């Protein structure tokens, strides 16, 4: 065999070996690149203490989840936004949101703390209670003397944007976390009111909310001396401190009633977004006889339960009128509805918000939490007011000029309440 032929054969063999080796290495690289080291998962649906045979085993293939995660990590243009912890929480939020119940939601540790601060009555932010109306973030009520109220924010305003970011599809904790912030910082809200958009810039501050406010209204300007003196009690929320604050204020009213210094009482539940169901039952006991049904909770999971008055109240015979509006929700509707159904009080104002479900707030590991709708509640009459609200016996729409906040002089609803309670 001639030397050129041998050289050609060696060159061909070398090329074949090179191509084979390169292909092998390329395939090895691509395999390694596409391989994601993740554990395999099995989802076990079981109750604590169940035996192995009692467990309902469902194998869930998480490949798609990890494939998606991997594609984000490899391809997303802005790597600074790839926060694994945030992505993890986002995945859980999406799972819970798939239920399509706006009142069932997952809370990150920070959001869970904020939620507890709300009911504890102290936080930093703009001072406004938020709700959902047809899936839109809504101002349920700006708190008294809060930055939100001073900036002109009103009950019923839709929040379309926060700092230029659309709120479409947001859940309540997401809106709260975006709007809240340290004292002295600013947040810009794009509000929608009566079909028109307006922007407000609000400086955040420390918000301290008293659950209960009380005063003795000496005389109503519209009815002269015949109104006499009326006790006015404003209930802002049903929070952690509500019962203790209520007891202290009711003692003042009880003393004035016993001395015949007052002719009746106005309980103001306007813009009260609710809170703890148990607090509403306790407060109803101030006016209703022991054993009276306040609310019935219906649940396929926990069974039905009646909440009845379990004490003897101090104000069983005082004339009573309750003020409500579209910001009166949840526990505020339970209290006002029960007193209306038992003909213990007359409701004056506007139709209430209409929230007839019960949520259980659960703490999860690492400080996270979840609010889960566990039941619905119905009034003593059997009425379920969810999405309907409660219509007051005496309807008075509050008309406040744009750019103004409610003052005593503008409060025609309170005027009418005082007139009614002193008849």
From TrEMBL:
SMART domains: PDZ, TSPc. It comes from the Bacteria. This is PDZ domain-containing protein. Keywords: Hydrolase, Protease, Serine protease. The lineage of its organism: Bacteria, Candidatus Roizmaniibacteriota. PANTHER family: CARBOXY-TERMINAL PROCESSING PROTEASE CTPA, TAIL-SPECIFIC PROTEASE. Residues 127-206 form the PDZ domain. Gene3D superfamilies: 2-enoyl-CoA Hydratase, Chain A, domain 1 (3.90.226.10), 2.30.42.10, 3.30.750.44. Pfam families: CtpB_N-like, PDZ_6, Peptidase_S41. The keyword Hydrolase applies. PROSITE patterns: PDZ (PS50106). It comes from Candidatus Roizmanbacteria bacterium RIFOXYD1_FULL_38_12.
């Amino acid at each position: 065999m001639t030397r050129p032929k041998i050289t050609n054969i060696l060159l061909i063999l070398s090329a074949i070996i090179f191509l084979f080796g390169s292909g092998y290495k390329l395939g090895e690289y691509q395999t390694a690149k596409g391989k994601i080291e993740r554990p395999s998962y099995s989802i076990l649906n079981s109750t604590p203490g169940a035996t192995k045979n009692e467990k309902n085993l469902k194998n869930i293939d998480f490949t798609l989840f990890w494939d998606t995660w991997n594609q984000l990590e490899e391809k997303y243009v802005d790597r600074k936004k790839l926060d694994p912890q945030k992505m993890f929480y986002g995945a859980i939020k999406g799972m819970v949101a798939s239920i399509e119940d706006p009142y069932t939601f997952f809370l990150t540790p920070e959001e869970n703390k904020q939620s507890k601060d709300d009911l504890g009555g102290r936080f930093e932010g703009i001072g406004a209670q938020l709700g959902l109306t047809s899936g839109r973030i809504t101002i349920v009520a700006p708190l008294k003397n809060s930055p939100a109220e001073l900036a002109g924010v009103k009950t019923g305003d839709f929040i379309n944007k926060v700092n230029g970011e659309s709120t479409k599809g947001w859940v309540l904790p997401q809106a709260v976390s975006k709007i809240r912030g340290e004292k002295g910082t600013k947040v810009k809200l794009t509000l929608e009111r009566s079909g028109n958009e307006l922007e407000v810039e609000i400086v955040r501050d420390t918000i301290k909310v008293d659950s209960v406010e009380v005063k003795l209204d000496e005389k109503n300007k519209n009815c002269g001396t015949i109104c006499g003196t009326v006790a006015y009690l404003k209930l802002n929320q049903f929070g952690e401190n509500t019962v203790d604050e209520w007891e202290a204020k009711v003692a003042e009213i009880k003393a004035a009633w016993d001395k015949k210094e007052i002719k009746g009482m106005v309980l103001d539940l306007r813009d009260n977004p609710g809170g703890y169901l148990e607090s509403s039952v306790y407060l109803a006991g101030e006016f209703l006889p022991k054993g009276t049904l306040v609310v019935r909770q219906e649940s396929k999971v926990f069974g039905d339960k009646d909440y009845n008055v379990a004490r003897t109240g101090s104000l069983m015979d005082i004339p009573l009128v309750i003020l409500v509006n579209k910001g009166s929700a949840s526990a505020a509707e339970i209290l006002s509805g029960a007193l209306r159904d038992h003909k213990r009080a007359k409701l004056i104002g506007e139709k209430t918000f209409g929230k007839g479900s019960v949520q259980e707030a659960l703490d999860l590991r690492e400080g996270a939490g979840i609010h889960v709708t566990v039941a619905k509640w119905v009034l003593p009459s059997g009425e379920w007011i969810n999405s309907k609200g409660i219509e007051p016996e005496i309807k008075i729409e509050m008309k406040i000029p744009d750019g103004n906040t409610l003052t005593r002089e503008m409060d025609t609803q309170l005027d009418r309440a005082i007139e009614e309670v002193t008849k």
